[in-house]
Structure formats: structure tokens, C-alpha cells
Design brief:
Blueprint lengths: L7 H27 L4 H4 L12 H11 L2 H32 L5 H11 L8 H11 L6 H4 L6 H14 L2 H9 L4 H9 L4 H17 L2 H6 L8 H7 L8 H33 L4
């Protein structure tokens, strides 16, 4: 190791980053650790820092309290549908804003960007009223249809298409006789891999962790998503924390797998989307 590697500033930076990693990883670690311990062991002093032997019993108790596998499959379905709809609709809208000129283009895009500044709780009552009017309460479509296209996704796709895809390539496809949908589907979309990966990961995580949406429109435990189902297990005096941690650990696995396989594409997509303002 060279002297440059031992420079105090470099060493301090490594220590700072290492401390940040420990702080950020601690909740994940203790979730998986507590999932293998009984409730009495979790609240021992000091709390356990290594894995125990009660994971299967915690899962069994979890399944007694909840239709957990149904809740988990419903969360996967809702998150997958929300992600697919966002990838399609946001890429279409981003392509239109990036490539085409049309009336009120700038005000409409300003409206899309401005909507990101509105607090999410403002749409709770309108969403409930619309879903009730359509007869969609307590149905999965009440979760993924309202979230089918987000302002962040439209903004990200517009920035990426406008900065990373040459206009000459689009013009050449038009000269070859391609219609707009053919240009979008066969030329533009295959080149949007980093942006689509970024948007897909962000959308999937947000849909998976969504708590307020199911709380507003879902009524039966069988149709709860995982966050709402796990919250329903809590009670003032009789919360089975071991079972709750087991459910939380299982629910985190899809997110961890998605992040591991998409981390590099996430960085590439965010970097490319920041090139052009």
C-alpha cells in the first residue's frame, strides 16, 4: 500500500463511508436477526445481534394471523402491474415531450413537473371517491390504475430521450416510412434501457412499499398488500414481534434482489437523465 493510500484525508473518507454503510445496513441486519428470535428474546437486554432458531415458528405464527402468501402475491401483482404501466405510459409521454412540438407543450410539461411538488395525501379523498364511483374498492385495480403514470417517470423519460437519443436517428426512421408508434417501439424504446431500468426499479419499490393507497381503498385482510397486512398484526398489548419481523424479512427479499440486479443500471439512468435540463 502506498503512502497516498494512507493519507489521513483518504483514511477519514473511508472511515466515514464505512460508518455510513454500517448505519444504513443495521436496520436490515436486525430485521433478519429478529425474524429468527421469539418475542421475549427480541426485548432482552442487550437485544440479540446474531441469528436464533425460531424462524420457522415465527413464520407459522405469521400464517396463523394472516393469509400472508396471498398478501405477498397480491403485492407482487400490484407492483408488477404498476411498473409495467408506468414503463409504457411514461415512456410514451416522455417521447412526445422530447421529440414532438405541439400546442401548449411547455405549459403542459410545467404542469407535470409542478405536480411533483404536491403532497401525496392531497389525492387520498379524490382517489377514494373515484374508486367508489367505479365500484373498484377492495380490488387490486384500485391500486395500480391510479398509479399507472407518474410525473417523475415522465420527467425522467423526457430527459433521457432528449439527451441520449440522436434526433437524426429518429428522422432516418421516419424517412424509411416508419410511423410514430413504429419509431417509438422499434427505435427509441430499445435505446432507453438505462432509463427504463431506473424507472422500473423506483416504481416497483414505491408500489411495493405503498401503505396509504391500500389503507384508503382496501377493506378485507385477504386483499391487503404486505405493508398493510403486517401493520394489521400490531396491537397495543399483544404484538407478536417475532412473526412481524419474519414477515418483514420475507417482504424485503424481492426489493433486495431487484436492487442487486438493477443498481448499475439505476446509476446509469439517473446520470444520463441529468445531462439535459
Amino acid at each position: 500500500m502506498s503512502r497516498a493510500d494512507l493519507h489521513p484525508a483518504r483514511l477519514a473518507a473511508f472511515l466515514l463511508v464505512g460508518a455510513g454503510v454500517v448505519v444504513l445496513a443495521a436496520p436490515f441486519w436486525f430485521t433478519f436477526v429478529f425474524a429468527t428470535h421469539a418475542r421475549q428474546e427480541i426485548f432482552a437486554s442487550p437485544p440479540p445481534a446474531w441469528f436464533g432458531t425460531h424462524f420457522l415458528s415465527n413464520v407459522s405464527l405469521l400464517l396463523e394471523r394472516l393469509p400472508f402468501w396471498r398478501n405477498l402475491s397480491l403485492s407482487l401483482y400490484v407492483a408488477a402491474m404498476t411498473t409495467a404501466l408506468n414503463l409504457l405510459l411514461c415512456s410514451l409521454a416522455g417521447y412526445a415531450f422530447a421529440v414532438h412540438e405541439f400546442r401548449f407543450k411547455k405549459p403542459l410539461f410545467a404542469l407535470v413537473v409542478g405536480s411533483m411538488m404536491l403532497p401525496s395525501f392531497l389525492n387520498m379523498i379524490p382517489t377514494f371517491m373515484v374508486m367508489d364511483l367505479l365500484g373498484w374498492l377492495d380490488q387490486p385495480r384500485a391500486l395500480y390504475v391510479p398509479g399507472a403514470a407518474g410525473a417523475l417517470g415522465i420527467f425522467l423519460m423526457r430527459q433521457y430521450i432528449g439527451s441520449a437519443i440522436p434526433r437524426d436517428l429518429i428522422d432516418a426512421a421516419r424517412m424509411d416510412g416508419c410511423g410514430e408508434l413504429r419509431v417509438f417501439w422499434s427505435v427509441v424504446l430499445p435505446l432507453c434501457g438505462p432509463a427504463l431500468g431506473t424507472l422500473g426499479l423506483i416504481t416497483f419499490i414505491n408500489a411495493w412499499n405503498n401503505f396509504v393507497g391500500p389503507l384508503v381503498v382496501m377493506r378485507s385482510v385477504d386483499n391487503y398488500t404486505v405493508p398493510l397486512a403486517l401493520r394489521s398484526m400490531q396491537s397495543p398489548n399483544n404484538t407478536e414481534w417475532g412473526a412481524l419481523m419474519a414477515g418483514s424479512a420475507i417482504a424485503m427479499l424481492p426489493l433486495l434482489v431487484a436492487f442487486v440486479f438493477s443498481a448499475r443500471r439505476l446509476v446509469a439512468g439517473l446520470t444520463a437523465g441529468a445531462v439535459r435540463g
